[in-house]
Amino acid sequence: MTTAHDVVLVGGGGAGLRAAIAIAEARPELDVAVVSKVYPMRSHTVSAEGGAAGVIGADDSLDEHIYDTISGSDWLADQDAVEMFVEEAPRELIRLEHWGCPWSREPDGRVAVRPFGGMKKQRTWFAADKTGFHMLHTLFQTSLKYGTIHRYDEWFVTKLVVDDGVIQGVVAIELSTGRIETMTAKAVILATGGCGRVFPFTTNAAIKTGDGMSLAYRAGAPLKDMEFVQYHPTGLPFTGILITEAARAEGGWLLNKDGYRYLQDYDLGKPEPTPVLRSMELGPRDRLSQAFVHEVEEGRAIDTPYGPAVHLDLRHLGAKVIDAKIPFVRELCLKYQNVDPAAELVQVRPVVHYMMGGVHTDIHGATPVKGLYAAGEVACVSINGANRLGSNSLPELLVFGARAGRAAAEYAAGASGPTRAGLRQADDEHRRIWRELRGREPNGNERIADLREQMQHTMEGGAGIYRTGDSLTKAVDTLHEFQGRRDQARIEDHSHTFNTELLTFLELSAMLDVAETIVYSALRREESRGAHQRTDYSARDNDRFLAHSLAHRASDGSCQIRYLPVTITRWPVGERVYGR
Amino acid sequence: MADSITLRVTRYQPEVDDEPRAQDFDVPLRENWVVLDGLNYIKDRLDGTLSYRWSCRMGICGSCGMMVDGEPALTCATFLVDHAPGPIRVEPLANFPVVRDLVVDIGDFLEKLPRVSPWIVRDDDIPVDEGESLQTPEELADYKQYSMCINCMLCYSACPVYGLDPDFIGPAAIALAQRYNLDSRDDGAAKRLDVLIHPDGVWGCTFVGECTTACPKDVDPAGAIQRYKLTAAMETIKSYVSPGGGP
User: Fold this and answer.
1) What backbone phi and psi angles, to 5 degrees, belong to A18?
2) B53/A247 Cα distance (integer angstroms)
3) Is the CATH number 2.40.160.40 carried by domain A231-353?
4) What part of B 125-164 touches A (C-beta under 8 Å)?
5) Same domain, yes or no, for B199 and B99?
6) Alpha-carbon distance A123 to A198, whole Å?
7) What is the mean pLDDT of residues B158-186?
8) ipTM value of the model?
9) Chain A closest CA to B243's CA: distance in Å?
């Protein structure tokens, strides 16, 4: 079966829905398809808690948000992109307000803002501590207004069809029926989010398996800065449930086993009773997660059945403040950890949270493949560089979702239909998926869950908070071996009806691609910068590595790394200073 | 505490099964394991063909609703130990057609939701340059509770009216209509009226209140429905008494 659309969106979370609305508004004559492996309101944007940064206060300025973002990125962000992002973020947040987002308010009715890590001013808009949930449902419900947006809910895209460097469409499978379909498109936008599931301990939902990154990589678009993996300092042990940075922004403390606010020993400022911006618990996520590792090495962490942890102390805030400002934190601690943060210490540990890297795009969301765009966590523009600041990712998906939508609409309006070679490629992909569905003869003997778990532990061991050349080389070899074992995976489910075993296999394949680009990029970057810390190259090296890494898939399937200089406009490379 | 517990899971694959059947699996009984952890253990270790939906494992994406021992529940928020010694019955959400195993077809809700215009309806369009609309914390509080719906479908599964009459527009859709009706920025109440006062709208509800009991997010759809019945009654009276009004 073949259907034709002008623009196909892969992914229906915040970035995808914002892009779809942008297209529907800019070019109502275009036919837009939103293809998502889950119902859009299930997308992982829903889990974002703390807030969305956008300059609004009279005491704040665009330049300060730009500087915070660039210094937070350890100068790896492209400054033209950051300038544009910071300028457009407040307008996007206002637009969402007009669409009904229930932002928390000041008594006089204006939108309220809160402090956030690495930010020198209060500029983080929030909807209590369910900001992503409210943004996603606002976007989803608003998208229902537009008759030109066609949804393919619970469809999984297996391939981007590219002919001669130009996008032709996608091949996708409908989960409920097993129907495989070619969707031709003049433009395709990837908005599939991140890939936290390549690691064993992550805040990321089960669906975050790097599908869009793998699709782009295999279609010839490079993945940029993949070595930069953000660990969030405060996840609940075992579940990996995120305790938002807002908990520290409202005054929470991080304590080691001696009850000591240990961040003061890591050049992050002096402990004050109330939160100080860009200091201590409001330092950037990379520095806080790294401090945790040192506390563990010094024997000052708390042992738990799920590994070492430190304490998050919210008791002094009192139940009233907690219920007003961070009610979801209390709900999550009570329901999933059986701990009441109003009365007890909460055990937390760093947890894989976000990919700074992603599909290489320009500031319009365009990738090097003509007609292929990307926005949100799947993309790397880059405004996040070596470390993203908390509350920059939600405005990022709005700003770049809208930009990619407008750019793709313009492009699609002038582009022509699919080529014959493109359609033949799509037919080949139909046959490949059919074969997987029918089952291999003979079936393999590798259990999918075993391969996935081994990959995850390889990533944690080789490419965790601290890496070395040795650990990375070993990870590269092991992952290479997994590529072979993937072809031996055992699939026992041959049903056409909601076959989640096939889905799990396709997701594992995507994760193995992404994992490989992470370790290769990390091995080649012989310096320490932001979230990428090499114990064998502990200093930042601006002479060699003030550059983005680009992971290309060579024709033999191997991963090749090239570099692209960082764009510097007005902020020369400096030292990252927090707490002083 | 025993070290394992039995999950009695509904299996149904339309290509081979005439009707759903139950299958028992023993899974580790750990203090912090939820029913969803048990299902994941089955899928990863015992039987890869088991199908169910899940994603966030933190009670916010709304994917993993199922019947646990006969009650609609988010399986990510239902501890195994609370249902010990078992066996724990895990079945697909009631009142929905079953697609396969524990996966139900919620297409009906997705079709009904747009009918209540769940978006801000304005008489005028405000340019972005004018900045945010003001809304006091009190005005926000008027509708906030109804904005917390995660579309998990537990309320439809609990609702005896929906079970008997699938045309009933249902608790979540009505709560979401009220979420916008009560928003100080919205002018769309009149537009939503026809759908809500239709026989399949609020008047379909016999106020059993099961929806509010089942809701994992304290949205209180039953309260939303009762409150709207009052509004609807007032509107009906107004249309009779106002000049030029009337049916």
Assistant:
1) -65, -40
2) 30
3) no
4) 126, 128, 131-137, 139-140, 143-144, 147-151
5) no
6) 32
7) 97
8) 0.96
9) 33
B25 and B139 share a domain? no
| DSSP assignment of A229-246 | EEEEEEE-TTT--B--TH
Catalytic residues of A: 232, 248
Instruction: Tell me: pLDDT of B232 over 90.
Output: no
In a mutational test of the A interface, the residue from B35, B60, B138, B186 whose CB has the highest number of chain A CBs within 10 Å is: B60
Domain boundaries, position B48: 4-104
Tell whether A239 lies on the interface with B, counting CB pairs under 8 A: yes
Q: Does B98 touch chain A (CB under 8 A)?
A: no
Q: Which residues of A touch B15 (CB under 8 A)?
A: 495-497
* Nearest-angstrom CA–CA distance, A224 and A246: 29
| Across A170-191, average pLDDT | 98
Name the 3-class secondary structure at A532: strand
pLDDT of residue B245: 45
A129 residue type, one letter: D
The count of structural domains within chain B is 2
Q: CA B114, CA A145: separation in Å to the nearest integer?
A: 8
Q: Which of A237-241, B17-21, B59-63 has the lowest mean pLDDT?
A: A237-241
pLDDT for B12-49, tens place per residue?
999 999 999 999 999 999 999 999 999 999 999 999 99
Q: With an 8 Å Cβ cutoff, is B183 touching chain A? A: yes
Q: Which residues pair with B88 in a beta bridge?
A: B7
Please indicate if any CB of chain A lies within 8 Å of the CB of B113: yes
Encode pLDDT of A428-450 as tens digits. 999 999 888 877 777 889 999 99
Nearest CA in chain A to B14: A497
Q: Closest approach of chain A CAs to the CA of B186, in angstroms?
A: 8
Q: Would B246 be classed as within a structural domain?
A: no
Distances (CA, A) of A43 to A244, A369, A451, A551: 18, 26, 25, 27
Distances (CA, A) of A112 to A52, A392, B69, B120: 11, 17, 43, 21
Quote the CA–CA distance of A448 and A455 in Å, as a whole number.
11
A148 near B CB under 8 A: no
Q: Mark which of B104, B123, B154 sits at the end of a domain.
A: B104
| B225 and B117 in a common domain | yes
pLDDT digit string, tens, across residues B107-144: 999 999 999 999 999 999 899 999 999 999 999 999 99
- The CATH label, of 3.40.50.720, 3.50.50.60, 3.30.360.10, 3.40.630.10, for the domain at A1-228+356-580 is 3.50.50.60
Does residue B246 register a pLDDT over 60? no
Q: Which residue has the tokens 């969402």?
A: A96
**Same domain, yes or no: B92 and B114:** no
Q: Where are the domain boundaries for CATH 3.90.700.10 in chain A? A: 231-353
- Say how far apart CA B24 and CA A578 lie, in whole Å: 56
How close does chain B come to A124, measured CA to CA in Å? 15
